[in-house]
Amino acid sequence: MSEPERLMVRARGVTKRFGAIPVLRGVDLDVRPGEVTCVIGPSGSGKSTLLRCLNHLEKIDGGEIEIDGRLLGYRRRKGRLYELKESAIARRRAEIGMVFQSFNLFPHLTVLDNLVEAPIAVRGRSRAEAERTAADLLAKVGLSGREHAYPRQLSGGQQQRIAIARALAVDPKLLLFDEPTSALDPELVGEVLAVMRELAAGGMTMVVVTHEMSFAREVADTVVFFDGGEVVEHGPPERVLGSPEHARTRAFLSRVQVQP
Ligand code: ADP
Ligand code: MG
Fold first, then answer.
1. pTM of whole model > 0.90?
2. Who contacts 250 (Cβ-Cβ below 8 Å, separation ≥6)?
3. pLDDT tens-digit readout, 172-191
4. CB-based contact 169:130 (threshold 8 Å)
5. Site to substitute for ligand 1 among 49, 224, 232, 248, most atoms within 8 A of C-beta
6. Closest ligand 1 atom, CA of 52?
7. Closest ligand to Cα 47
8. CA–CA distance, 63 with 115 (Å, rounded to integer)
């Protein structure tokens, strides 16, 4: 028998309701280490909810999610699932970085303090060690020397690059991006996508909810078309974006891009 393939994300039959409204209707998702998965789909289809379930910011109602081979937020004993304590969940969650549409930097903290907070609090690093890592990360996102700036003194594109650096500061196995360029002025989108391209080229495992079809086409290993709380189709970008099988995918693509 061959070894089971290692997966960074393995979601099976994930369901989630808000009140009576089903938002995820049995989602399966596989993400292999080092792969970039772009999730596309209409507004309100459940993409953000899916990401929030992947790092256990939301509890799921059914199915299961494993991150790097381990259940997230739960442990299994004699076939039953038990939710982990908040402290254990926080440690597991630190394996997963998240970048939001709205940057979510701490406005009252300098760039440096934004970058060292989690490594010190969650990973137990020394201040000196965390500051060294922060300097390396600032170089990586092209913002060396901005340690002492406050978020409001930076452009949206710079803030989002800091948010990416902050997500990287705890050395995550997996990075989740929820429409990271949707809140940016058009001329600032490119600098953020360039940082994300570099991360992908460096082998980071990424799940990216995005409307940037050219990014998905160039960078994704897999594109997932999500609609109505389910995966309608998934596959390599040239197939899903170039010759989609489903009418729902074709209709969506014809709305968001001029040419297939
Ligand atoms: P998308 O990111 O694809 O736009 P969302 O995951 O944000 O979709 O939302 C999917 C659906 O779930 C929407 O109908 C939204 O109104 C609803 N929803 C999302 N979060 C909540 C919440 N915390 N409480 C109630 N309904 C929610
Ligand atoms: Mg969303």
1. yes
2. 244
3. 999 999 999 999 999 999 99
4. yes
5. 49
6. 6
7. 1
8. 34
Contacts of 259 by beta carbon, 8 Å cutoff, 6+ apart:
none
Residue 4, pLDDT > 60, answer yes
- For residues 123-137, average pLDDT: 96
**Residue 49 CB–ligand 1 contact under 6 Å:** yes
Do the strands 70-71 and 62-67 form a parallel or antiparallel pair, or are they unpaired?
antiparallel
| Confidence label for 11 from pLDDT (cuts 50, 70 and 90) | very high
pLDDT for res 8: 97
Q: Is 2 in the pocket of ligand 1 (CB under 6 A)?
A: no
Cβ atoms of 162 and 141 within 8 Å: the answer is yes
Residue 21, token pair as written in the block: 């409204």
Range of weakest confidence among 149-158, 204-213, 250-259: 250-259
* DSSP 8-state secondary structure symbol assigned to residue 181: T
d(CA 187, CA 190): 7
